[in-house]
Amino acid sequence: MSDRSEGLESDSNKKKIKFKLPKKGQEVTLPLTISVDGLAKLLNVPNFHLLRKMRRIGMDKLANNYILSNEEAADIALEYDVVPIIPEDKGPELYPQKIPDDMSAHPLRPPVVTIMGHVDHGKTTLLDTLRSSSITATEAGGITQHIGAFSVDLKSGQNITFLDTPGHAAFSAMRARGANATDIVVLVVAADDGVMPQTKEAIQHALEADVPIIVAINKCDKPGADPSTIHNELLKHGIQTEELGGDIQAVKISALKGTGMDELAETIVTLAEVLDLRAEVDIPAHATVIESQVEKGRGSVASVLVKRGTLRAGDVVVAGTTWCKVRGMTDDRGKTVKSAGPACAVRVMGWKEIPRAGDLVLQAGSEQNAKDVVANRIEKRTNRERLATISELNDDRRSENERSESTREAEIAFRRAAASFKKGLRTTYPTKAEFMQKVSKADATSEASSEAAKLETPVVPIVIKGDVSGTVEAVSESLEKLPSSKIRINIIGTGVGPVTESDVAMAGAGSQGVVIAFNVKADKKTLSVAKREGVEVKTFRIIYNLLEDVEKMLVSRLPPTLVEEIRGEAIVQQTFDITLRAGLTTTVAGCRVTTGAVARANKMRILRNGAEVHIGPASSLKNEKHDITEATKGQEFGISFDDFEGVKEGDVIQSLHYNEVPQKLN
Asked: Is the pTM here over 0.70, yes or no?
């Protein structure tokens, strides 16, 4: 039937209502989100009937103002035998070109090799030797804190692109990106140190990315180093070298002295030949963002690794939610280049915003095409964020509904009480205020509980600024991993570039905010504003110093733990009452110190038969009518208490001192 109708009882007024059900098979287009009331109107059915359908399929969002996602709305619509239509999330977009099944017609390309391993195992020194440069000397603390991309021409004429990843634990995401952007992983293990935490993590990243591994056993020249033990250690973590019957090659080297480097290079080249690495050069550029930063005089700059195609000056490319008309490119030595083919790492200038490390770079047909793609991606991101907030919105609305229901019940109770007065069943006429007061108290209790929950764990608002996007990401992730049961960090803003006054203002909007500046600085004016606003600006160049300092800062903001120490004990020998001014009396305990000392300033605990009967301060401490500050072992004294008169002969009095001990985060 085209007109379907039902006779039903409404929950509210018990009247039978007739209404038309939606036409069976009718198409209903659903927006991204819709309220229960809005869906009832869209389907042209009464609200109570829709709520019954929701209850039938196990939905708990039973209020007219609750928000539904389009998927939830579609489940409800199906109960009415209509066809829910969810518009496809389409729009201008760029996609990678399909990789040809037969790559033999395309030219060979240089291999991309990622150097991975534990901090201070010699990864960057290895690259220094290959490049005959001095990278390590320019790195803070002698550790790599960015992904460096370098092109190296070997003596054999072969060209290799190397990625140098950080070894510190904070840079896990960078190492993962390095493993996923590479053809071969060179795992550097120090012969005098063995397999360490970041070595294990690097192995895991390489295995997950299904990338061939070459092991470089470094520092073989150091006294006491035993390279043979490394093979057995690696075997425990799934790396079986040729020495132990596996197929993973291991090369003994000394990156500092240059021994074994030719063999390592030859091993890489041989493996690259076996892999037969090829790429198209005559298609639009496909690349990956390695790093991005803001440079003075250049604006937003990104280091990208071209994977396929050729990137040229003047091309328009999109990465994530930003785009770029390539204004200029330089290689790893700062030399200007006009084009970059597969496996080339270049620094690209001209970005409208800073792209994120790891973003895929794709070439657009025009500037307008790039703008449309970016706008579409931003809209999709906004929609995802809207969907993510539905639960929070519904919680707020549930609270509002409960308050409204409480108010309605209070008004009904008031009217009933008034009716009782008119019938003579009540002696006084009720006031509306007495009924509404109960609602206010309940709301106040609920709000107080909510506020108490928020205040249980102190929160430190933090703004993070760094020199490149990858390190900002690494710092953010590392800080978020700090123990948070006692005090937690709320990262309210991040960015690339120097600390600005707006960063200080953002941190100052919360209480005791902090700006973390990693490899960037703040000018004098910004520091002056920070001092005026009470915002601390902390600058760092080395990641582990940053983490240690932030931990200390968090600990300093926790109240210290009070550890009780018994400084002395005394036995009560007798008690007597003395008369004070205005005819008042007080009980004085005559005591003798048995151990340590009893100090007037300390808190006192009174024990009777081993059980505590009182704890509190002393009101007086005397020896032969003279006030004293302390009684030592063997000395007799009299003591009284303001708020306790029940001290008895034989009681033990302990003199307590409380030491303040800094808390720990975990």
From this structure: no
